[in-house]
Structure formats: C-alpha cells, structure tokens
Amino acid sequence: GLEEGAKNQFSTFSNFITTINQKKEGIGNRNSPTQLVIPNIKNGRDLPSLCLDVRQKQRMSLDTLPQELKAPFPPEPPLPTRTKTVKDFQDDMEKSKASGDWKAVHNFYSTTFDSFLEINAAFKKDTNSPFNTIEDSGIDAKFVNVVYDALLNTPQDVQKSVLKGIINGLLQEWTGPRTKDDLRAYCILLQNPQFSNTSTYVIYAHLLRQIAALTEADHHFLVHWSKKISQKRFKQVVDRLLQFISLRLFPAKPEEFPPMVKCTWWIPSATKVLALFNAANSLISPPIISYTDFYNSTLDHIDLMEEYHNWQCYGNSHRFSFCQYPFIISIAAKKVIIQRDSEQQMISIARQSLVDKVSRRQKPDMNMLFLNVKVRRTHLVSDSLDELARKKADLKKKLKVTFVGEAGLDMGGLTKEWFLLLIRQIFHPDYGMFTYHKDSQCHWFSSFKCDNYSEFRLVGALMGLAVYNSITLDIRFPPCCYKKLLSPPIVPCDHNTLVGICGVTLDDLFQIMPELAHGLSELLSYEGNVEEDFYSTFQVFQEEFGVIKSYNLKPNGDKIPVTNRNRKEYVQLYVDFLLNRSIYKQFAAFYYGFHSVCASYALLLLRPEEVEILVCGSPELDMSALQRSTQYEGYQKTDLTIRYFWDVVLGFSLDLQKKLLHFATGSDRVPVGGMADLNFKISKSETSTNWLPVAHTCFNQLCLPPYKNKKELKQKLIIGISNAEGFGLE
Fold this sequence. Notes:
This protein is an alpha/beta fold and 730 residues long. It is built from 28 helices and ten strands. The protein folds into four domains: 86-294, no CATH class; 339-478, Hect, E3 ligase catalytic domain fold (Alpha-Beta Complex), CATH 3.90.1750; 506-613, Hect, E3 ligase catalytic domain (2-Layer Sandwich); 617-723, 2-Layer Sandwich (Hect, E3 ligase catalytic fold), CATH 3.30.2410. Helix 17 (454-468) packs parallel to helix 23 (584-598). The longest helix has 29 residues, at 331-359. It is globular and about 90 Å long.
C-alpha cells in the first residue's frame, strides 16, 4: 500500500476531482450509473441484463444487439510508438533497485499512465491491429501483470505519478462514442493494485463511474474481455470492488472519504462494474471463481428488508437497491429476507382469518392461525395428501403437525419428524414416483404416465413448506431440478405458459445419468461414420411397466438417421427429452406445488444452487464447530461428563454423527448459517444414570444424565440415537 506521504499528496488532487464532478453535472448526469433499471416486479421474466443474471437464458452477442448499437466503430487515433518489452522493464527495475536511481522507471510509469492512448501504446500487443472483436482484447496481459506487480515496490513519487496520470485520463474530454482503445484502457486500469488503498478511493470511484456509464455494447466487450483475465487477477479485482463497497458502507475512518450525501453514486457504480465481472464469470464453464466469491458479507449487517421493500415498491424507477444485483447478497442474508417475508405473509394470512371470523360473529379459535396437519403414521402419505389438498387456503400459515395417538405437542420437533418420514416414504423406490440413480446418488422424476399427478404436487408443496417454515430436508435432487424450479421464478399468470422448462445440456445429464451422458459424449467425438456404425435414428425407447415404448425426438424421427452432421442436434434433443419433455406433467405438478406455498418475489434473488441449500441445508457435518457453539445448562464445558461426551461424538462415524444430529434437532442436515445456527444446547438431566439421553427437538436440546464414565456414556448415547422415532410428554 501507500505510505502516509502519499495520502497527503492525494489531498492536492481535490481540484481535479472537483473538475470531474463539474463536468459530470454539466452534462446533466446523463451517464450516471444511478440511472439503473430496476426489474419490473410485476413480470419476473423482464430482468435487466446484468443485474438478475442467474436466470438469463442467453447472453448478448454482437449479432443480437439492437441496430442502434451496431454503429460503425469510431476510428482509433494513432498510437505513439513504444518499444519497451517485459525484459527491458525488468532490467530497468533491477538497475534501479541496485543503484537507487529510479529515473528510468519513473519516466516509464509517468508516460505510460499519462493518457488512455499511452496505456494502449505500452500494453497493446500490436499497435497496428484494431482488435475490435470480443474474443481478443489485444492486451499484453503478461506485461500488464509485471508492471503492476512491480508498482507497489517503487518509491512514492513513482506511485503518485501513476495516479496523476490516471486522473489526466479521467479528465479527458469525450466527444462521441468510446473507442476500443478506451475500453482497453479501462480494462487495464481496473487491475491497478493501488486501488486497494482507501486513500485512492476518490480516484477509483470516478474510474468506476465512467465504466458503469458506458453503453450496453461497450459493457458487452468488457464482459468478454474480462473472462480472459487470469483467475488470480480476476479474483483480485472482484475482492477490490467488494472491499470498496464495504468500506464505503462502514468506513473505519469516515474522515478519509467525502460525506455520503456527496457520493451516493459510489456504491451503485462499483456494484454495476461488479455485475460485469459476475456476467463474465457466468460465461465460463466451469466459472473462473465460485459464485460465493461475489458475496459481500458486509451486507448482512444492513437493513435488507428495507432494500427488499424498496426493490418491490419502486418498480422501474431509478432508485438503487442491492436486490437488483442479488449475486452480491450472501445466501445467509437471502435466507433472512425469505424468512421475514414468509413471517409477514404468515401474519397477514392469520390476521385475515381472524378478521373473517370476527366479521361473521364467530368465536375465534387459536387453531385457525395455523396450518394444522393431523396424520396417522400407518397412512402417512395418503393422510398428508388429503390434509394439504383440503387446506389449500391455509398453506401459508405456520405449520403444526399432530400424530394421531401420540401426546407430543408440536413446537417444531413433530414438524421435522413429519417431513423426514414423509420424504423417506415418497422417495422409496417401491413407491415409483422417483428413480434413484446409484452412479450419481440422486433421485429423478419417473417418466411413467399416470392419470393423477397430485402426489408430485404434494412433494413440491413439501419442499415449499420446508423453505417457508425453515426446515431442511434430506432430498437428493440434481442441480438441474432447482434450475427448472426457477423457470420461471414467478408463476406466470397465463396457465398455458410452459413451466419447469429450461435450457439443459449434456453436463446436466452427467449429474443424473453419467453412464448415458458418457455414451452420448462418445457419440459426439466419434471419428468414424456415425450413420453406418451406430445405425440410429431420431427415435428413442423407454420401458414403462414392462412395455417398451418409442418416442420421436422430432417429427418423423424414426425415419431420420443420425449422421456426423446432425449428431449434435440428436444429442441435444435426447437430453431435452429426458430432462424436460418426458417428465413435463410430473415436474409441472411439482413446480406448482412448490410455488403454491413459496410464491415470493424473494425467489427472484436466488440462484438454483442457493435454492438447493435452502431446501437441503449442507450435508457437511463439522462437529468441532458444533462443540464450539454449544450452550450448556446445568453443566460447564469443562465438566467431566461434557468432556466424555465430546470425546465420544468426535470419534463417531459419520453415520452415528448424523443420527445424533437427527436425534437432537430432528434433522441430520446443517442449516444455511452453519452449526452455530442450530443453537444446540446440552442440559443436565437430574435422573438416574440408568436412563437414556432425552432430546427436545423443538429446541435442539439434549438432556444428558451425569454418566460416571466414558464407556457408559457411549453405550447409552448409541442406544438412544439409534432408536429414536415417536414423541411423548414428560
């Protein structure tokens, strides 16, 4: 970073910054990135191209740009001739370090960063080539990396000269559209490591403002060029932008920055530029960095519900909200939004039921405030199906479960048990609704045709109820399922609109049926004559209840041979048939069941992977983390019984650890916030040590007698967690 002397020097740049502000105001702020398009909340599919990117089916390409964006490229002004190579620069650096004379290095940096033209002259691979395509930025990335890696090791006057040059470039008068050389300069400047220092943030903010205000076509080029940046540099730029947003929201030293009222555009600018990198990241498979690397955990500490309501209420106005850019909001924060949105819906529905009762002069009953499900263990699926079908109007009330013949009161534990047992039965192979694929260890929808798909709707409703009531389920669906569940994320008003249909690829099939996907992949790469050697047509066969049925992938498919020329089409149609067409009715029922409970604009914020985490939690158990966050009642963590307990539990197999978690909490899955979110408690049970441990799953509480030794504790604990089904009252 820069020393104190550099910070003092930056204060003299205020005149430059004032000039920039005046120029911005003078053009009516027409390029200000605060003029952002907020998604039309009335139609979940009309989403801005770079904000709610996770459901964008097709990325913009130059061929699909509107006519006004296809204007001829503005002529590039002639570039100065610069011949310094990477080796020349490295030699200069070595000489300067040895002699202490930094004149040559200073001249290079001050000249190179003095203008956008000079930046291109230094770092463009070939100054005589236009590089006007999205495929090649023309930037000599190796040279850029070497120059930036050396920059922070140079004297302060060298570093200051770079920042002065950047200000000169930002103050340049712009007439007409930006050239590709300008875009190259922006791409290079974004990678400047000096912008990690808060003393440079005023300059950094104006750079981000100019980039955010570029046209959609210019953004298109920057997105495609950014995906060519190395993973290390890409991550550094993303981290720098996230840090900029965090420190502007919660500055460690507020006096370092201008007052918030004078720089309200800082955060919108940075967020929009971050959206460009998120779009670039999603273009690559696998992505350059994980989608979780775009999360900004600082946003967990702002009023997210206000952000959410602003996003809902202001429609297509120009008011900025982080909810326009959901990739930046962590899954933990999204869970909070969904939970509070669910709670508000529950309160609203319960209040309406109460008002209806009173208006009819009927005596209010507490049960009317809940979705009361009463089932027999011996008829679990049929009773559950009947209850949910009969109480459709109550699905958005708080769930309460009663098992007939049992005295347990549902404070949350019975609900967890109901979900667990119901899911276990429905997904059993003998039930026939889902097929379990051993190779991928996941379930997929059975393609068998039937007259009634209500049970698929029940499974969808169960998943919706789980999210709505913050319950995690042990469901093993492939990622493709959650992508389909958000297609579209808001149920369309027109019931003729297809739902649950999404673009699927061979990669999606690999996650479900890897052996078949491998065979299709071999077909695509086969070097011989496909038609003569495979003798296949655009017709596929499936077994249904012992009968082989044939289906054409396209009209007259049984008469169209698969050839080297059309095999890609064959594979794509086959994958689409397996994952979309053959199970359409089953999945549509499942889709409508889920959205009948979980219909919320908050779903627009979620990626398919995040829906999976909300539904299933995490299967990764970290018992050490659970130990650190456990609370005690009647015990101290240093007590001998507690030490015995953790020695035993940490030595358990994964299967026994899951049984313990299920015994104590009603689920063997870890919630979104990790083990700490379980609020696990161990209480001292003042009973005989002959008794087994007891759990209150409603409160994630384990009642443990003070066993005399580790052997006795282990024996009693294993017996207790291995025989835990059913509820009673003490």
